[in-house]
Amino acid sequence: MKNSIKDKNILLGVTGGIAAYKSCDLSRKLMKEGAKINVVMTENAEKFVTALTFQYLTGNKVHTNMYDESESKISHIELADTSDLIIICPATASFISKYANGVADNLLLNILLASKADVIVCPAMNVNMYENKIVQENIKKLIKVGVQIIEPEKGELACGWVGKGKLADIDLIIEIVKKKYQKKTLKNESVLITAGATREYLDPVRFISNPSSGIMGQALGSEFKKRGAKVDIVAGHTDVNLNLFDHYTKVDSADEMKKIISKKLKSYSIVIKAAAVGDFKFKNKNKNKIKKDISPIVIEMEKNIDVLKFIGSRKTKNQILIGFSAETEKILVNSKKKIENKNLDFIVANDISKNGSGFGSDSNFTYLINSKNEIKKLGLKSKKYIAEKIADEVEKIRQD
Ligand code: CTP
Fold it and tell me: Which of 142, 146, 88, 86 lies closest to 114, judged by CA?
């Protein structure tokens, strides 16, 4: 999927608050996402950060003056017309109040009045100023005319007070900007994602499991949600928060996972099986804790149900079924067999013998293999990146 802010013209308006320095980071990160950045600073902003800093960071001339003699065109009109998005970061109480009331006594305010671009305002100020009724009324006014406000966070403020007024986290601002332009290409899809590690109990306190963290499942959930899909999660044990999705069911064993999944299986258009399901379970699960002095100790195990194979056997015509495969040898050959055996549309083959790849890590060394035997080597990439590629592949299947 195309990066949504790539080549967008973003005008970054910087006003005079201590958080102005954080805008430097914002400008760099937006550029890294492929956006073109023009910076406009108010006179007070220049007391905190110099125009030269932004000029070096963005490679573009920074605009500060309403009546710049070096400009051949009327700069506020040109900047207003050519911007897709204007982000005011940080926005002071004074700036917000002037903007909300149509005052235009500097370049940035003139641009805002003259522009039809989307506007995002990121307030940052003292907590009492932020909570002041006049400021709050002005923020409401801006929301009413379609301005998006990214609320400040609670925290220790530069002025010494603790409360709401700290500029929102820069990465959060980037995420919100990206989301704004994300095309909802999978909005008609209902996705089931399994994640994490199953546990097979021997008695109430002992179990066999694996170190799967659920990070891959979480990354997949976020990516499919971004693209507009409804996302349900059924997960074993994880180290991550999975409450952010439409529905989340926590399970222990493979049998429990199968039972939960089979109830609603038909309602999903896509099933992604990222969970690390245990292949074996104890033949007998003891109701009481086994005492250590029994001898000899013989614990019998038996094969678990293959949940993915079960789903594959019930797959309907329009359902897309994606499996994962963790291998230390013959990665491609073994993974291709799993596509056939489990009736998959494609498999994410993970070479867990590679450094930095595997359970619990933030990255995996993977290949995407489809049922036509086409192989895409992704190599060692973050789980977020892999999730994006999987969603791209799903989009491709839907377009075919
Ligand atoms: N899987 C499953 N139920 C199991 C075992 C695996 O649903 N009892 C699913 C996993 O969620 C994964 C895929 O099957 O999507 C492949 O899992 P993997 O552990 O790589 O392979 P196995 O099929 O278990 O075979 P082996 O362990 O022999 O490689």
Answer: 86
Instruction: Characterize the bridge pairing of strands 118-123 and 148-149.
Output: parallel
Q: 160 and 215 share a domain?
A: no
Do residues 161 and 216 both lie within one domain?
Answer: no
The pLDDT of residue 72: 61
Alpha carbon nearest to ligand 1 atom 20, residue: 325
**Residue 125 contacts residue 17 (beta carbons within 8 Å):** yes
Distance 23 CA to ligand 1 centre (A): 46
| Average pLDDT of every residue of the chain | 94
pLDDT at 149 over 90: yes
Relative to the CA of 325, which ligand 1 atom is closest? Answer: 20
Among the atoms of ligand 1, which is closest to the Cα of residue 275?
Answer: 11
Question: What is the number of the ligand 1 atom nearest to the C-alpha of 279?
Answer: 8
pLDDT the model gives residue 356: 86
Instruction: State the pTM of this model.
Output: 0.72
Assess if residue 291 is contained within a domain: yes
- Whether residues 68 and 94 fall in one domain: yes
Both 230 and 339 in one domain: the answer is: yes
Residue 136: which CATH number?
3.40.50.1950
**What is the pLDDT, as a whole number, of residue 297?**
86
Ligand 1 atom 16 nearest Cα = 325
Domain boundary among 130, 157, 181: 181
Residue 71 has pLDDT above 70, yes or no: no
Domain region containing 212: 190-399
CA of 188 to the centre of ligand 1 (A): 28
Measured by CA distance, the residue closest to atom 3 of ligand 1 is 306
**Ligand 1 centre distance from Cα of residue 286 (Å):** 26
Give the distance (Å) from ligand 1 centre to CA of residue 314. 17
* Separation of alpha carbons 8 and 83, rounded Å: 8
Which among 219, 338, 205, 364 has a CA at the least distance from the CA of 279?
338
Same domain, 209 and 137: no
The length of the chain is 400
Domain total of the chain: 2
* Cα gap 248→348, rounded to integer Å: 23
CATH number for 343: 3.40.50.10300
User: Read out DSSP for 114-131?
Assistant: H--SEEEEEE---HHHHH
Asked if residue 23 and residue 77 are part of one domain, the reply reads yes
Strands 206-208, 200-203: parallel, antiparallel or unpaired by DSSP? antiparallel
Active-site residue 159, yes or no? yes
